[in-house]
């Protein structure tokens, strides 16, 4: 194709500990993510999905191989966590502006960019509020606004909606779908929900039990621009079931031997529920 990927991992591995306590957590992983692509990672608990994202974010160093993000302009990566990662002692506005302040963006420009994303995420009326006054869904909107305000090259999302109830999770999935399609933000997204992966992703990558490797890839056959209506599209449930079949053996073996039978984790079974 002649165009280098936005993110490339080659023979990437990560281990923790030394000697007899050494634990192989990830890899080897080979992965390319194209500019503007939305890639979802699914896999059993403990398979190294979050480790991969933390390496991409620069929070961990790989033990072997390499991961590189092609930087054109601006901020290489921004990460959004399941627990929001926003500061309780800062207002919504200063939380959204935080990354811009770290980058020493001039205050006037920072305020304008923060204001834009506050409005875009429906938070303008709460700019002066503190996170303790917000619902979980609104806190996650603050986290998304803060990440996008720095105009990252790639957005890294680690199960950002996992703590939300089903109805709110669906709403935020649809909002994120519209947002990333409008901005064409390259996104690497971790989820336990197969439905979420199929709604959001251009590609869904299935990871093995620890140490996590990519064992399968599926491309949801739903055209862009896409809406949440794909949940009722022909073939959606069949593709979700196919992904679960790919995952089943990995989930059974992916909990370090704890639990047996169904792997000791309810998340994948919740993921394939209608």
Describe the structure.
Residues 254-264 have a biased composition (Gly residues). It comes from Streptomyces daliensis. Residues 250-274 are annotated as: Disordered. InterPro entries: AAA+_ATPase, ABC_transporter-like_ATP-bd, ABC_transporter-like_CS, ABC_transporter_ATP-bind, P-loop_NTPase. This protein has 274 residues and is an alpha/beta fold. The chain folds into two domains: 1-74 and 155-274, P-loop containing nucleotide triphosphate hydrolases (Rossmann fold, 3-Layer(aba) Sandwich); 78-150, no CATH class. The chain is 35% helix and 22% strand. The protein has helices at residues 49-56, 92-102, 107-120, 136-149, 166-183, 194-200, 236-253, 267-271, and strands at 7-16, 23-33, 38-42, 64-69, 75-80, 152-158, 186-190, 203-207, 214-218. Strand 8 (203-207) and strand 9 (214-218) form a beta hairpin. It is globular. The N and C termini lie far apart (39 Å).
